[in-house]
Amino acid sequence: MDFFRIFAHRNHTLLCHLPMLPDSEHQILSCRDCNIRHCAAAVLGVEELDLINNSRHESVFRKGDIIIHEGSPTSYIIYLKSGLVKEYIKGNQEKEQILQIVRKFSYLGLSSLFGDKVNHYSYAALEDITVCYIDISTFHQLIKKNGSFGFEILVSVSRDNLNNFNRFMKQSQKKTYGRVADAILYFSKIIYESNEFDIPFTRQELADLIGISRESATRVLTKFNEDGIVDLHERHIRIDNLPLLQQISKNG
Amino acid sequence: MDFFRIFAHRNHTLLCHLPMLPDSEHQILSCRDCNIRHCAAAVLGVEELDLINNSRHESVFRKGDIIIHEGSPTSYIIYLKSGLVKEYIKGNQEKEQILQIVRKFSYLGLSSLFGDKVNHYSYAALEDITVCYIDISTFHQLIKKNGSFGFEILVSVSRDNLNNFNRFMKQSQKKTYGRVADAILYFSKIIYESNEFDIPFTRQELADLIGISRESATRVLTKFNEDGIVDLHERHIRIDNLPLLQQISKNG
DNA sequence: TCTTTTTTGTGACGGATATCACATCCTGCC
DNA sequence: GGCAGGATGTGATATCCGTCACAAAAAAGA
Which residue of chain B comes nearest to A144, CA vs CA? Predict the structure, then answer.
């Protein structure tokens, strides 16, 4: 399954952070005490964590809110503490292209950060989320000061890019059925790690993720439902025939 | 021109390195004396350069040679001292997908380097080239030891990724005419920085770069030639109507 | 120089899919 | 509750473009 030759993201393992606190309103007092840090932060000392702490502030977004707008200057790095976010671009009035869904415990905009001083992608909340703003100069400073931290960020950026690029490339040589299969498997394997979930997207957004038209997406989903490959009601989906779905994904 | 919102690559400016020596056979004695270093190397001290020097060796490839094969373990970083290289993948026996053309003064395989221990892309020489092998552990060591070097590498990787991803994305929402126009402009603006050049590709490779069939590529090129947009003979091409070509690129 | 292989151009054809059009359904909102 | 706007499903249609087939040209060997 070439499509899912995904590299484990260390920040998505339990080795890297403790489980979420039950109280999501919980405002931590200091980065020192934060137990949902990014895995790269493991190499930071207490003074360095304090440095981040002094330049950060927390914030909350509601479902549908735009967190970063493409073209805006990058003055902050945003760390996603909880919730799902979509990363996307739209070239002037053209159709929207969704790059990926970002899960909690990731930085937003890292890939744009070192290119120039502008955000190249937009980010919107798919559900209510909490984030941490970190001053960009502090971030730069840390990377230059602590080589190991830079190395970890480099690993993170590289994997992210490789995964996205890989997905995109595979996609581009597939037809609609294969693409829709990919999308379902993407949600199942990468995002929710479950056979049954609610798609956090409209049909249009789903189509934008895999680069097909809304109508085609609908048609293929209906077909998958009729054929018993998935059980689909509105946005709720359950995979009933995983092997077949994987084969469709593979064969295009 | 969204397609060409490319970030200047510092290692491609004269500020960053001196012009090539006239004698391309010239074997330098030490990294210290190398005047075609990657721009990131500017932040390295003499001991650090010596560290690289002790683990490196130079080599030459002939046109058509494969430099790195996808799937091979990454034990070296390869620095391209002169010549052009194509970066590509082919999923088993499927059609080849060319990611980009790499110019001299770039590292090969950087983006794969931090993901895992395998090369994800293949590299083949488009002309006779010279390279420098650098031991990967030395490279890792340097990044961790010298934060500024890591930062520069991070910048380099980020820009490269952003450019490729951007190009790829724009492409995916264009039709054949727009794609061929993109390819011509890519060679003209990015690779050769000239209105007139020899395409270092077969028609098939050109098609693989922009994700269309060979026949379509041929047909579009012929059409461009007939319409006086370009002057084309075999692999030699001269752009005669740049504005129109840009418009075709933009409108898809 | 001759042979073999690779590269290139061109026509005909069919299929996949985007687009248009419209009917339902759902959701928030006054 | 009723209305407006968005989201969804479905059919009909047009078209872009990949595939096949073959000839010609160029390149590579021998």
Answer: B147
